[in-house]
Automatic annotation (TrEMBL):
GO terms for biological process: silent mating-type cassette heterochromatin formation. PANTHER family: CRYPTIC LOCI REGULATOR 2 (PTHR38046). GO terms for cellular component: mating-type region heterochromatin; rDNA heterochromatin; SHREC complex. It comes from Colletotrichum liriopes. Pfam families: Clr2. Residues 125-249 form the Cryptic loci regulator 2 C-terminal domain. This is Cryptic loci regulator 2 C-terminal domain-containing protein.
Length: 323
């Protein structure tokens, strides 16, 4: 989550049974270093941007540049900050926040084991904290199509391919530290544009995964002439972590966060709906430090970047084995 200059982790989400007329709020734990002694922030859910909708600036302080978060002796560094220079301390706080976000971005942890097959060679999970994003079965992901999918060259170059996620698994015996993602690959189309592969079929609205159904309903309401739809390029595709750009966010939820509710509503009434997915960063392109990979839990991933005494509160269905 990014909110202005504040980078943080959502620790408490809004209740699902929110009362009508009450704007949902979330609690955010700022990330930097626990020695900065930051406090949790309560804010409206509608003001919290997804992390990949925010480009983290480079680190400013020379002593911290070109270093990974865990390479810094933060206690010694903070002792070097004098009370007479509060500006430098503020810059250090911002830089530690950027570096903590970079650390989270190059890590992942799985949660809620579903099944174990073949003597532990394959373990299925309900969800994964992939970098800054929480991803679960049923979500739709923005993906790059690699040549190993055996699709056309045009498909390999698609900027907007999507994966409807049906399976998350690891193979700890054969390929430890790797995660795999299985589902169906879709291509969104508008107007008279043709699919990237011959024989690709348009999927009826009621057969699409929920996030794409929501997208289609929104676009049919405000821009019906665009004829937004999805075609199926491949079923049961298996992708690896580098193939994933990040989550797909429904336009009617994400666009107001980026452009403001008033502007989006006014443009929608004029039949204008902008392509918001292309404004999101691709996770792997945000890597500025060495890849870390699998961690035991979300708290283990974030480590001392959390405020003192912080607790990440997940619903009971989220079970982290390393927590």
């Amino acid at each position: 989550m990014a909110s202005g200059w504040r980078l943080g982790i959502i620790s408490i989400t809004a209740p699902t049974n929110q009362k009508p007329g009450v704007k949902p709020e979330v609690q955010i734990l700022p990330i930097s270093h626990q020695l900065f002694n930051q406090s949790p922030i309560q804010t409206l859910e509608a003001t919290a941007r997804p992390f990949l909708a925010f480009s983290v600036p480079n680190v400013s302080i020379p002593e911290l540049q070109n270093k990974a978060y865990d390479e810094v002796n933060w206690e010694a560094f903070l002792r070097s900050l004098t009370p007479e220079d509060p500006h430098r301390r503020e810059v250090a706080l911002l830089d530690s926040s950027k570096m903590a976000a970079q650390k989270v971005g190059v890590s992942f942890s799985v949660f809620s084991r579903i099944a174990e097959n073949e003597g532990g060679k394959k373990i299925d999970y309900h969800g994964i904290f992939l970098g800054a994003e929480r991803i679960e079965l049923g979500d739709v992901l923005r993906v790059r199509i690699s040549p190993e999918q055996n699709l056309s060259a045009a498909a390999n170059n698609l900027p907007d391919a999507l994966l409807a996620l049906r399976e998350i698994c690891t193979a700890p015996i054969d390929v430890p530290g790797m995660a795999f993602f299985k589902g169906d690959i879709y291509q969104p189309l508008t107007g008279d544009n043709a699919p990237a592969t011959d024989g690709a079929t348009t999927v009826p609205e009621d057969k699409l995964p929920r996030p794409l159904r929501e997208e289609m309903v929104f676009r049919k309401k405000f821009v019906p002439a665009k004829r937004w739809r999805c075609v199926l390029l491949k079923q049961n595709a298996v992708l690896r972590e580098p193939d994933l750009k990040g989550r797909f966010y429904a336009t009617h939820r994400l666009l107001p966060l980026l452009d403001g509710q008033a502007k989006v509503a006014a443009e929608a009434q004029q039949g204008i709906v902008r392509d918001v997915q292309q404004r999101l960063n691709q996770r792997i392109d945000t890597f500025k430090t060495a890849y870390i990979g699998q961690k035991r839990s979300r708290a283990d991933t974030i480590g001392p970047a959390l405020p003192p005494g912080s607790v990440l509160q997940f619903e009971p269905s989220v079970r982290e084995e390393g927590a």
